[in-house]
Amino acid sequence: MSGKSDIVEKFEGIDGLLLGKKQVTFFAECLTDECLGGNTDDVKIIKAGIEDVDQIIELRRSIEEFHIRSDARDMLLRAMETGTGRSYYTAENGVMTSCVSTTAENSLSAMIVGVCTRKENRRQGLATAIMQKFFQDILDEGKTLCLFYDNPEAGRI
C-alpha cells in the first residue's frame, strides 16, 4: 500500500489486513511539462509488449534494491492487458538495459514504478530518457504522473 503516512497508518491496526513490510518513501508529482528535461532523441525508447514481460522481470530481479514478489510477473501482465500499466525500456544488443513502468493508471493519473537500470549501464541517462518519454506521453493524455521513491537518486530523475 502506498500513500501519505498519516493515512496509511490508519490501516495498520486492521485485523486480517496484511500490509507487508513498512517502507517509508518520498513523493514526487509531475503536473506540467516543466518537469521535462533536455533532448533525449539519441536514446531509442521502446514500448514494452506482452512478449517483453519476462525480460522486465529478469531485469528487476537483477536490481539488488528491489524485492520482487512471487506474483510480480502476473501483476505486470495483468496491468498491460487491462491498460492499467505500461512499460518503456532501452536495449543494447537485444538485452534490456533500463526500464520504467506505470501502474494504477486511470483517466486522471499514473504511478511510476520499477525504475531500474542494469548496473553496467547506469549513469548514461537511460532511465532519465525513459522518464522524459513517460512525462510527455502521460501529460499529452491529460494525466498526472506521480512517483513514490525511497532512493534519493531515483528522486533526482
Properties at a glance:
157 residues, alpha+beta, Aminopeptidase, globular, N-acetyltransferase domain-containing protein, Acyl_CoA_acyltransferase
Description of the molecule:
The protein is α+β, with helices and mostly antiparallel strands. The protein has a single domain, classed as Aminopeptidase (3-Layer(aba) Sandwich). 28% of the residues lie in helices and 24% in strands. It is built from five helices and six strands. A six-stranded mixed beta sheet has the order 1-6-5-4-3-2, with helices on both faces. Strand 3 and strand 4 form a beta hairpin. The longest helix has 15 residues. It is globular, with a radius of gyration of 16 Å. The relative contact order is 0.19. The mean pLDDT is 86.
Under the CATH scheme, the architecture is 3-Layer(aba) Sandwich
The top level CATH class name:
Alpha Beta
Mean pLDDT: 86
Portion in beta strands: 15-25%
Helix content: 25-40%
**Count of β-strands:** 6
Q: Write down the secondary-structure element order.
A: HEEHHEEEHEH
SS content category: alpha+beta
Oligomer state equals single chain
Total separate domains: 1
Radius of gyration: 16 Å
Distance between the termini: 23 Å
Using the alpha-carbon principal axes, give the shape: globular
Spatial arrangement of strands, main beta sheet: 1-6-5-4-3-2
Q: If you consult CATH, what is the topology? A: Aminopeptidase
The CATH superfamily label reads Gcn5-related N-acetyltransferase (GNAT)
InterPro entries: Acyl_CoA_acyltransferase
Protein name: N-acetyltransferase domain-containing protein
